[in-house]
């Protein structure tokens, strides 16, 4: 092996390494920007000021991703890092989503149209050895099909 062919051999592997490194960086950046982000759209406080019903939009995957509409029941004033155990409603293709408290422990989720992925009709909170149950009612406001087939 001559010195010139050895240099070509080394250059070949340096170029391959750089190419793999660049591809890895591009994929990592794409993954980071394609994560999810949650934007709150409505917050309604219960009559006793203990809980907030929060509707939010969660966007996934950047420009080619999807949008999910979610409703969380949280302690009054809690912001940002919502937990999945606090989520009571999750849907796509939603139109006209609104929240309203009927009583201290009953919240109503109203919508014109929605393709519901997840819905819980109750949840409980433990506070100082007391359990408070919250009923969640979902109410379509239209008699027409809730989503197009």
Q: What's this entry about, in short?
A:
This protein has one helix spanning 3-33, and strands at 36-45, 51-60, 66-75, 87-95, 98-103, 106-111, 113-119, 122-127, 130-140. It has 149 residues and is an alpha+beta fold.
Characterization of this structure:
β5 and β6 (106-111) form a beta hairpin. The N and C termini lie far apart (68 Å). The mean pLDDT is 83. The longest helix is centred in the first third of the chain and has 31 residues, at 3-33. This protein has 2 domains: 1-33; 36-140, no CATH class. The strands form 2 sheets. A 5-stranded antiparallel β-sheet has the order 1-2-3-4-7, with no helix packed on it. 21% of the residues lie in helices and 50% in strands. By secondary structure, the chain is α+β, with helices and mostly antiparallel strands. It is elongated and about 85 Å long. It has 1 helix and 9 strands; from the N terminus they run αβββββββββ.
What are the main properties of this structure?
single chain, about 150 residues, alpha+beta, 2 domains, 4-stranded mixed sheet, 1 helix
Q: Helices, strands, pairings?
A:
Layout: H1 3-33, E1 36-45, E2 51-60, E3 66-75, E4 87-95, E5 98-103, E6 106-111, E7 113-119, E8 122-127, E9 130-140
Parallel strand pairs: 6-9
Antiparallel strand pairs: 1-2, 2-3, 3-4, 4-7, 5-6, 8-9
Output the strand order for the largest sheet. Answer: 1-2-3-4-7
Instruction: Report the uncertain regions.
Output: none
Outline, from the CA principal axes? elongated
Roughly how many Å is the radius of gyration? 25 Å
Total number of strands: 9
Number of separate helices:
1
Order of helices and strands: HEEEEEEEEE
Structural class computed from helices and strand pairing: alpha+beta
- Into how many domains do the coordinates divide? 2
In whole angstroms, how far apart are the ends? 68 Å
The average pLDDT is: 83
State the major sheet. Answer: 5 strands, antiparallel
Which bin fits the share of residues in helices? Answer: 10-25%
Strand content: over 45%
